[in-house]
Amino acid sequence: MKLGFLTAPFPETSLLEVADWAASASFEVLEIACWPQGGADARRYAGTSHIDVATLSELQATELVGELDARGLSISGLGYYPNPLHPDSAHR
Question: Which pTM does this prediction carry?
Answer without folding.
Answer: 0.81
